């Protein structure tokens, strides 16, 4: 991803602090490996074409609760209560592709020490890097060795 995209002038969707648990009505869980009939809040951008390298992706983003459709690949529930929803990308049988999600733009100017905090679950033989970016740079959070 180029720096031009990260530094684009955008009107914030929210002002910090911001918290998302994916349990609102704006996150509709789908079913099956392709999250059929699921939808995410319109402020979330998944697999944006300009970031996907070849312009396409095979991953299917969605929200879920309980187990993911593919056994032994996802969490058994959300981190907070075990009964809520979580955001995930169904990646079974796909490799050499990137699953990307962009959160709503959050204005951090009200915070003196902004911080990003989240829970993640990664499992599978094709899992590689996990990166986060602010509007300025990418940060490697976890790397498969």
The proportion of strand residues reads: 15-25%
- Which structural class should the secondary elements be placed in? mainly beta
Write down the overall mean pLDDT. 76
Radius of gyration: 16 Å
| Regions with little confidence, pLDDT below 50 for 5+ residues | 1-6
Largest beta sheet: strand ordering? 1-6
* CA-based shape: globular
Could you walk me through the main structural features you see in this protein, from its secondary elements to its overall organization?
- The chain has one helix at residues 3-6, and strands at 14-15, 45-46, 60-64, 86-90, 101-102, 106-107, 130-133, 138-142.
- By secondary structure, it is mainly β.
- It has a two-stranded parallel sheet.
- A hairpin with a 4-residue loop joins strand 7 (130-133) and strand 8.
- It is globular, with a radius of gyration of 16 Å.
- It starts with a helix and ends with a strand.
- Mean pLDDT is 76; it is low at 1-6.
Which keywords apply here?
145 residues, mainly beta, two-stranded parallel ribbon, 19% strand, globular, disordered N terminus
Could you provide a short overview of the structure?
The chain has one helix and eight strands. It has one helix at 3-6; strands spanning 14-15, 45-46, 60-64, 86-90, 101-102, 106-107, 130-133, 138-142.
């Amino acid at each position: 991803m180029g720096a031009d995209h990260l530094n684009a002038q955008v009107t914030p969707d929210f002002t910090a602090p911001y918290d998302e648990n994916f349990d609102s009505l704006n996150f509709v869980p789908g079913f099956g490996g392709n999250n059929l009939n699921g939808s995410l809040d319109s402020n979330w951008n998944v697999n944006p074409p300009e970031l996907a390298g070849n312009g396409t992706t095979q991953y299917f983003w969605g929200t879920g609760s309980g187990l993911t459709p593919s056994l032994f690949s996802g969490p058994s529930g959300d981190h907070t209560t075990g009964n809520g929803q979580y955001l995930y990308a169904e990646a079974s049988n796909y490799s050499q592709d990137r699953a990307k999600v962009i959160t709503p733009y959050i204005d951090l100017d009200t915070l003196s020490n902004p911080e990003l905090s989240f829970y993640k679950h990664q499992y599978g033989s094709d899992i590689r890097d996990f990166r986060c970016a602010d509007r300025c740079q990418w940060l490697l959070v976890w790397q498969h060795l």
